[in-house]
Request: fold
Amino acid sequence: MATSNHQKLTKTLLNGLAAPQVGKRQVIYDTETPKLAMRMTHTGVRAFYVV
Reply:
């Protein structure tokens, strides 16, 4: 299951994120660019996508 929130996606924010627990995904929606999101897996892999 993914947790999600809305924040401004910045380099500082992304570099400071900790990977979620095993079996979880973290989703952050950008507040500056509509429909832009970043998803992170428990291994630290990040994917950016438009919803």
Observations:
- Residues 2-50 form one domain.
